Amino acid sequence: MNRSHLRVLLSISALVVSFSTTARAVEEPVQLTSGQVSGVELDGDVTVFRGIPFAAPPVGDLRWKAPQPPIPWRGVRVADTFGAACMQRGRQLMSEDCLYLNVWTTADSDQDALPVMVWIHGGGWTFGTSSSANYDGVGFADKGVVLVSVNYRMSAFGFMAHPALSAESTRGVSGNYGILDHIAALEWVRDNIRGFGGDPDNVTIFGESAGGASIYALLATPLATGLFHRAISESTWITGTNLTHLTRHNGFSDSAEARGQQAIADTLTELGRSTDGDLLATMRAMSADDVISMRFGVSLAEDGWVLPKSPDEIFSDGSHNVVPLLAGVNDGEGLFFVRPDRTFSTLEEQKQARLEEWGEHGQGLAAYYLAKTTEEIFTTEVDYSTDSLFARPNRQILTAMASTSADTFMYLFTRNLRDPTQRAPHAMELSYVFQTLPDQATEVDWRISELISDYWVQFATTGNPNREGLPQWPTYDADRQQHQIIGVDVGQGSSFRRKELDELDRYIQATHNSARH
Description:
The protein is α/β, with parallel strands linked by helices. The protein has helices at residues 3-9, 138-142, 155-159, 163-168, 177-192, 210-220, 256-271, 279-285, 288-292, 311-317, 347-358, 366-369, 377-402, 430-433, 443-462, 498-516, and strands spanning 30-31, 36-38, 40-41, 47-53, 76-78, 100-105, 114-120, 146-150, 198-208, 230-234, 243-245, 300-302, 325-330, 408-413, 482-486, 491-494. It has two domains: 1-323, Alpha/Beta hydrolase fold, catalytic domain (Rossmann fold, 3-Layer(aba) Sandwich); 341-449 and 462-517, no CATH class. Strands 3-4-6-8-7-9-10-13-14-15-16 form an eleven-stranded mixed sheet, sandwiched between helices. It has a three-stranded mixed sheet with strand order 1-2-5, with no helix packed on it. A two-stranded parallel ribbon has the order 11-12. It is globular and about 65 Å long.
């Protein structure tokens, strides 16, 4: 049964945002700052433009440098094929030449001024691509949004800092290249999206997991100021180890430069290559496969430029980008990462491992994340994963924005498509948001998908998910911490895992303070 049939069957057409899509698609070719493009017309008056370059290929001397403007072309570029995925392990169609984006639109002309949504995919900043079928933009385009999905450099290509790279930089910094790719894509949207019928003054950025961490970075960096006007962060992924300082230990991990320096040294040694002479030339002469094979942990780097201060300071002192924010988590995020047969088998094993991990500042965490019976081990591990990886940073950005004049909204997603008796694991909301549910999805699942999609579109249109015909969604504030529950049951809750998150905040702050002194 196709999506349009289900919408009629479920009698929920009243919930669909009303935009006219009966006329011809946007006039082609579309004139960009770098040349002309034509797209592919799909059913339902949607036109898709695949594989548009938003930056020059970051290869050769441009490896480990900020993205440069796209290379202009002559004639009309036929944008009918997705660009290659950025370099990652275990994928075939990938390349360093990967800075491409895609656009879906139903606009009649460049005067339509439709809301724009820019999607940043997840994958731990190490895998994923904008061409994934799960991120098909037709559902959003059908509801009057110009949907843009973007690639960005990942792994060492996108996040490695190194003293030699910092030394060659006019700003004395390195790393954060993936975030700079996001900024370049948003600058491209500002300069070109009107040609696809989009409104450059109404741009919503949204992303999930590592994409949510990218939203976190874009909210914090002054380099993105004015490039977006609303933000949606799904399962923001920020931990002690994926947020580093460029040159010093932060209490959880070595500096970003030290991590990169070690990764390069180890790899060159394994390859039998010398680190003497022109090290940068040697690094850039490494094959893409050699770079992607490095043992390297991705992180944002507090570098004084992209992140002029730590995000904690930026959010607490209110110097972040102030826009309406919608953010949330799935109630069982950790189910994606914790398996019953691969976790601790005894209480003592869990206790020893966790106390060693937490160190001197983590004693208070034991009350919430150490099981009291063997049967509770799996549940406490799921909760610890949920809270430490996603719920804590989610609350941080919500609290920061709620202290400003911007409207702020939190959601809690609760539907598990694979096993409705369980909580919703990490990434479970994605196919609901994009309306790309699998064939086995039920009418109940399609109702949830229609609702969450309508909420996202309404927020992108007005900065508020509420409108007539949708269940009322309360604003978030730091005291009540109200949120909208989205699942089989739709309603309102408050103070999601508040005590646990308070203790995690205390632990993170104490560890950072100890490192500074």
